[in-house]
Amino acid sequence: MTKPEALEILKDLASRYQAVETKLDLDQKQIQLQGLNDQMGAAGFWDDNTTAQKVSKEAARLETFITAWQQIQGNLAALQEFVTESSEDEIGEFVNEIEQLNKNFDHSENLVLLNGEYDTHDVILSLHVGTGGQDAEDFCQMLQRMYLRHTEQQGWKANLIEESPSDAGLKSAVIEISGDYAYGLLKGEHGVHRLIRLSPFNAKSLRQTSFAKVEILPAIEQDTELDIAESDLRFDVFRSSGAGGQSVNTTDSAVRVTYLPLNLVVTCQNEKSQHQNKATALKILKSRLAQIKLEQQAERLEELRGDKLDANFGSQIRTYTLQPYKLVKDHRTDHEHNNPEKVLDGNLEGFTQAWLRH
After folding, report:
1. 315: helix, strand or coil
2. What's the CA gap between 285 and 267, in Å, rounded?
3. Angle at 226 between CA 225 and CA 232, to 5 degrees
4. In the CATH hierarchy, which fold is given to the domain comprising 116-358?
5. Is the pTM of this model over 0.85?
6. pLDDT, tens digit (0-9, with 9 covering 90-100), for 176-219
7. What CATH code is assigned to 3-113?
8. pLDDT confidence of residue 309
9. Please, which residues have CB within 8 angstroms of residue 191's CB and are 6 or more apart in sequence?
10. Where does residue 254 fall: left (phi above 0), alpha (psi -120 to 50 degrees), or beta otherwise?
11. Domain boundary assignment for the chain
């Protein structure tokens, strides 16, 4: 990197900072953070554990946001001064810092774009096998690994709620992902994904196209966030199947909840108790209704109508091509990556950033 190139990058970052500065509202966020800290310091704060966790999580999110932008502002000013006063031979000392600042700016700028109703929420991620037989089942498992690796790289936490394995891979899975802005950053993954490759399940190694559907839902914790009439719900209890906890397969602990107006069904059997499975199933149901509400922009649950998207030809949002060439392409944003193995190993930031800006 030459001195003129370094100065141009810093000039561009300074321009982008000026454009976003008014949207940051750091002074107001400092006031909000102080108010939350006052709440956490009050006597009896942890008596209501659910509310306390929500407040403390919001305080941590605000503090991280404020600190990140303060550091960007300080580092940008310092690097502009150092690079301006440095000789061409000394620029190499600042290359790593400039690249890191650029990366931090991109990440923090994304968070400014996340102002949707549920963008700060955790995620309920569901995977469903589409057309393509064994290849599709294998692809579904590849996507599960991709999202688990991405979760790890982001410093988030993953909790497997439901999994239906097959001989070739995976038929379906439900994963709860917890982390700052998890829903906001992953919501663009919602849709049908397509894989093109030479099939490992075909004796002639013919090229095979397979599909899987990814469902991204905001995790809904509080009943007040989405009001569901008790009369609209039907609960069924049955015996769990497959490997699970100590009491799984010995008691009727699995729960199926149906939202009658839409005939929307959610099943949970991974927890050991019927009570835990019921709570988890309700959480996923509320998350699905919230996603439908966002997509339909409906004001009441009575107005919701969920169109189903089939996981087959013509409906994909992204294609992972391994043969005859290597390319991952998002068909909505036209963002591409020429190393599918890296993407399938969890490197999704380019796609999530492109979707946010799109």
Report:
1. coil
2. 9
3. 155
4. Alpha-Beta Plaits (3.30.70)
5. no
6. 999 988 999 999 999 999 999 999 988 777 899 999 999 988 88
7. 1.20.58.410
8. 54
9. 213, 214, 309, 315, 316, 317, 318
10. beta
11. 3-113, 116-358
